[in-house]
C-alpha cells in the first residue's frame, strides 16, 4: 500500500490557489472595466493588447516621429489619464528604443543603417531623459537612473600607503638559501628623517657564515635599521605553494605542493623618506611589445585578434649573450597600443599608451583615450593619468624635463573639457582631429592642456622641453594653424612647430608657430633642444630632413592680481616667459628613405643621433661603419648639432637579408639600441616564432652590434613598439626587487589626477521632483573633501556625504541626511558629464520604509521607479548592442512593475515585502474558495478524513 503525507498535497494545492489568486488580482487590475474599492479605474496595459510590429516602430523612429507622445498614448487607450498616461507614454518610447536595439543586432544590417539607428537611438534616449526629468506625477515618481538608498562611487582616490611589496624574488622552501643572494651583493638605503639624511649600507657579506635565507637576510636588514634608529622595517612576504594532484589508475593522488613564493615587504613610516641606490650600476633596457596572432582564423574580414602588450626590463647584454630579463609583465588588457617609453631623472619609467577601456580604475568617456603610466624601476605601477577625451584621442609622443615634468602630445576629436582652446579648433561634436599637448608637474598633476588646430585635420607627433619653460610641439596639419608666420604649403599634410609657455595666469600661451615641408605628405618625427637651438627631424615626402631653429625668449616679472583659494584678492609678482622669437637656421637632407621611417632623434654627449629604417643603402651621411644588408635595414646616424659640419658623421646600418623595420631607438653614452620587426636571417640568428621582433645594441663608433636578440611572444608573434634605456637602471637592487631612487609612498589626492575627470566636468543635483537643478563643477584643485562640501551645499545639506575605503582607495558615498530627504543625481550637460568618471550612478537616493509589506520611500511621496538608462549606449559594435538590448529590457520591466503596483494599490491589494512576494492579501474570489473546498473534500475521501 502506498502512503503519503496528506498535508504535503494540501500544501501544494493551497500554494497553487494562492498563485492563482495573485494572478487573478493582477488580471483584475489589468481590466479597464474593473474598479477598486477606492473607485479608481485601472486601464489595460499597452503590452496586453495588439502590439505594433517592431519594424513599424523602427520605421517611424527613423522617419522622425517623436518617441515620447502622451497624445499618441492616450489615443491608443482613450480611458487613461494621470500617472497612467505618463507611464504609458514612457513605455511607448522605451518600446521603440527596444525595437531599434533589437534591429541593430539582426544579421545583415549595413553599416549605414547602423549609423541611422544609432542617431535615432541617441535622440530617443535624450527625449526619454528630458521627459522623465521634467515629469509631474501624482502617486509615483520616475527616474531614468537608479533608485538607491546610497550612491557609492566605484572609482577612488588613492590613500597614502607607507608599504611596499616587491615582485617574487624566489620560489622554494622557507629555509632555502636564495641563489641570487650569494656573492658580493649590496645596496645603500638613504633615510631622511626630520630633514636629516643618513645612509644605511646593506652589504650581505657582513652576514659572514650565516645562511642567506629570506628570513636571515630580513633579520640582517632590520638589525641595521634599528641600530641606526629608524622605524622602517623589512618583512618576508610568503605565498604558500599550490596543492597538486594527479590521476593514477583512476585514483586521485596528492603530490607535494609547488614551492612557496617569497618576496620582500617594506613597512615604511610617514616620517621617513627612503631612497635606494647600488654600486656599479649598468644600463637597463625597457622594451614594450605587442604580441599575438593578428589573424587567427585566417579571415581578414573578421576582427578576432587578441593582442597582448608587455613591458620587459633587461639588464645589459654582451656579444653573443642576451641581456638578463629582470621582469616581463603583461600590461592591462585595455591598453590597445604603446607609442613611447622614457625613463625619468628619478629612475622611473613612463609609458604613453592608447586605451580603449578602464585603465587602473580610471574609466574613459569615449571610444579611445590617452593614458600616461608611471612605473618604478621594479615594474610597479605608481599612477595612471588619462586625458579625459569625450570621443577619441591618440598619444603620439612625450618628453621629460630634468626636473621631472612630463609633456605628452597627440590628437583629439570630440570634446575635451578644461583645455585651453585655439581660435579655430575643430567642432567638439565632430570627428576632425586637433593637436593637443598636456603638461604634468613632477608629482603627476596636470598643469595645463592646450588644444590647438586649424580648419582641417592636424595632430601633434613630437614634443620637447626647452629653456625658460618653453614646450616645443611639432606635428602635421592639412591647413594653416592660427598665428603661423608662414602658411602651409601645397599638398596633403605639412609640418609645423609651435612654442608654448605658461603665462602670468598659469595657462598655456602659444609663443610662435611656423609651417614647413614639401608638396607631398610630411610629418615631424622628433624634436631636440640644445640651449636656444631647436632641431626638428621630419619626413618630407620620402626625404629625411633635419631643420634647425634659433629661439630667443623674453622672461619678465609682473604683478598679478587674483582671487586666491580663500576667496581673497591678492597681488603678487609672477615671473614667466612672455614672448619668443625664432629664426630659421641650417637644414640637412639625409636622403630618401625609400619607404622607410624616422624612429628617433636625440642628443647624447653633445652630438645628434637620428635612427630609423630605409631601403636606401647610401644615405647622405659620411663615415659608414657598417654597410646595408639589402632590403629594409635599420640605421643609426651620428652628426654635428650644427647640421653643416660633416666631419663628425658616423653611419651604421643594421639588418639581415630580409626586411627589417625600426619602431624605436634609444641612445646612452655612444651606444644605440634599436627595436623593430625582424626579417629572415637577421644577424644570422634563427627564427624563434612565426613573426619575430628584435633588440640590438650598436656601438655607433664601430658599427658593431654588441648585443642582439630576437624576441617572440603570444602565438609566436611579437612586434616591439618602444624602447627606453636608463644608464644606471640595472644593479643589485634588481636582485631584491627594490626600485632605484626615492620610494613613492604618497599619491596625488586631486580628483582630476586620480580619475578621468577633467576640470570643468559637471553633474547636477536637486532635492525634489522637477525642482531647480544645481550644477556641480569639478575644479582643477578639487579633492574628495572639497567635492563633498560642494555636494552638501548644493543640496542644502539634504545629502549626507561620507567616505568609504576599498583597498588603498577612498571613495564617496552619498545618502539622505534626514529620514525624509531625497536627492536626485543627474548627468552633466553638453558633453561635460563626470558621473562615470567618478563612478557614481545617476538616479534618486532616498530612505525607505515598509508600508503593508511593501518597501516605499520614507518621504511619503509615493514609490520611485528607475529605468537605469545610460545615455551613452552604443549600437555600433556587438558588445554595445547587447548592452543596449539588456538595458531596454530592464527599463521596460521597471515600467511593468510600476503598472502592476499602481494597479494593486488601486484595487486595494496589499503586498508583503520581497521575502513573501508570492503571498497576496485581499478577498479571494468565490471560485477559488470553492476550489479549495473541493480539494479538501477530495483529500478527505482519499485519506478517510485523517
Describe, in short, the structure shown:
The chain has 12 helices and 53 strands. A hairpin with a 5-residue loop joins strand 24 and strand 25. The longest helix is centred in the C-terminal third of the chain and has 29 residues, at 878-906.
Q: Can you give keywords for this protein?
A:
five-stranded mixed beta sheet; single chain; 946 residues; alpha+beta; disordered N terminus
Secondary structure blueprint with pairings:
Blueprint: H1 6-30, H2 54-62, H3 70-76, H4 82-104, H5 111-133, E1 141-143, E2 146-148, E3 151-152, E4 157-158, E5 163-165, E6 170-172, E7 186-193, E8 196-203, H6 214-227, E9 233-239, E10 244-248, E11 251-255, E12 260-267, E13 272-277, E14 282-291, E15 308-314, E16 325-330, E17 335-343, E18 349-355, E19 369-375, E20 381-386, E21 392-400, E22 406-413, E23 420-421, E24 434-440, E25 446-452, E26 458-465, E27 471-477, E28 494-502, E29 508-516, E30 522-530, E31 533-540, E32 543-563, E33 569-592, E34 597-604, E35 607-614, E36 624-626, E37 633-639, E38 650-654, E39 664-668, E40 671-677, E41 693-699, E42 704-711, E43 718-730, H7 733-736, E44 741-742, H8 751-754, E45 762-766, E46 774-777, H9 784-794, E47 799-806, E48 809-816, E49 822-827, H10 835-838, E50 843-846, E51 848-851, E52 854-857, E53 864-866, H11 878-906, H12 926-943
Parallel strand pairs: 1-53, 2-50, 23-25, 36-38
Antiparallel strand pairs: 3-48, 4-48, 5-12, 6-12, 7-8, 7-13, 9-12, 10-11, 13-44, 14-15, 14-43, 15-16, 17-18, 18-19, 19-20, 21-22, 22-24, 24-25, 26-27, 27-28, 28-29, 30-31, 31-32, 32-33, 34-35, 35-37, 37-38, 39-40, 40-41, 41-42, 45-46, 45-49, 47-48, 49-50, 51-52
Helix pairs in contact: 1-11, 1-12, 2-4, 3-4, 4-5, 4-11
